[in-house]
Amino acid sequence: xxxxxESGGGLVQAGGSLRxxxxxxxxxxxxxxxGWFRRTPEKERExxxxxxxxxxxxxxxxxxxxxxxISKDNTKKILLLQMNSxxxxxxxxxxxxxxxxxxxxxxxxxxxxxxxxxxTVFP
Length: 123
What we know:
Blueprint: E1 3-7, E2 10-13, E3 18-25, E4 33-39, E5 46-51, E6 57-59, E7 68-73, E8 78-83, E9 92-99, E10 112-113, E11 117-122
Parallel strand pairs: 2-11
Antiparallel strand pairs: 1-3, 3-8, 4-5, 4-9, 5-6, 7-8, 9-10, 9-11
């Protein structure tokens, strides 16, 4: 059974940084694409970034380009999201998810989800 667990969220001042981690375990983990999504009370869950099993990265929000970096540690089976120059509008619940398809921004294409980790950025 595939399990996904995020960590690393917290409270940070605008301009600061956070690094989110996602630990995945279970059968055939290496073949999945892994992505980050976020949700706020005002917005439905939206795709932030994804990385394929081979390391190809995709970013889906123009607002995070140049500030967020997705990566993964294949040895430890950990997905990372380095978030720099954080803004209050980045405040959200961040989710990690796995897809057996090529990276995409359709929520329904992701089969396994974590419980989320809260990121709050104050001015």
